[in-house]
Every structure is written in structure tokens, then in C-alpha cells.
Specification:
Elements (H helix, E strand, L loop, with lengths): L3 H16 L3 E7 L9 E7 L2 H17 L6 E3 L6 E5 L3 E7 H7 L1 H4 L18
Parallel strand pairs: 2-5
Antiparallel strand pairs: 1-2, 3-4, 4-5
Length: 124
């Protein structure tokens, strides 16, 4: 099962993504099949610029909370950005890539982790 620490990281990352307009936020507990990762956060952006903004905000907020980004991939193209924070890996997709790679289908046997988002999204 995902640890409380990784769930706390998830809530920070999800709130950051939501604040930048991310859509279809889904968190999967991948701790059983992947011993080095607890949670995958999946999020969708409407454009490359939006994907990049979401990824930057997630990274900034997790860094502010004291979590180190171990690996970042895809930032220059901003079609599928992967942010690896150890226990939490955030996948920020452009809509087309999210549909094509269908990670939810690939990891369908993994439990969904609830995400608690703020009731209202601040204006940009």
C-alpha cells in the first residue's frame, strides 16, 4: 500500500496540477507491481504550454515541500512530461498522448488513490 508520505506528496502535486487547469486527475497505487514507486499521478493538459505549466507547478510545489525531483523527462516537447519524485511519479499528458498510451488501462489492476482537491480553483 502507498505510504502516508506518498499520499501527502500526491495531494500537493494534485492541488498544483489543478491550479494550472489539469484535467482528468487520476492517482494509482502501483506499490505492489513496482517496489520502488508508490503512486502514479496522471493528469491531462489542453496544449503543450498547459502541459509544461502543470509540470512546472507540480515540481515547484513539491520542491517547496522538501521533495527532490529525481528525474524529469519530456519537458522540451511537453507532450508527455514525467516527473519522478521517488515514491510519486507524475505523468502529465497532452490529450492525444493520454489516449494513445492509456496508462489507466495498462495499470487497471492497481487501486485508485483518492485525491482531495480544493473546492474552488483560483483564477489564473
Amino acid at each position: 500500500m502507498a505510504t502516508q508520505s506518498s499520499i501527502d506528496m500526491l495531494q500537493i502535486a494534485a492541488a498544483a496540477a489543478d491550479s494550472k487547469g489539469a484535467e482528468d486527475l487520476v492517482a494509482l497505487d502501483v506499490s505492489q507491481p513496482l517496489p520502488l514507486v508508490d503512486i502514479f499521478l496522471l493528469a491531462t493538459g489542453r496544449s503543450e504550454r498547459n502541459v509544461a505549466a502543470i509540470a512546472d507547478e507540480i515540481e515547484d510545489k513539491l520542491l517547496e515541500a522538501g521533495h527532490k525531483c529525481l528525474r524529469r523527462e519530456g519537458r522540451s516537447e511537453a507532450r508527455w512530461v514525467l516527473l519522478d519524485f521517488g515514491d510519486l511519479v507524475a505523468h502529465i499528458f497532452h490529450q492525444e498522448e493520454r489516449s494513445f498510451y492509456a496508462l489507466e488501462r495498462l495499470w487497471k489492476d492497481c487501486p485508485v488513490v483518492p485525491i482531495d482537491l480544493p473546492a474552488t480553483r483560483p483564477a489564473d
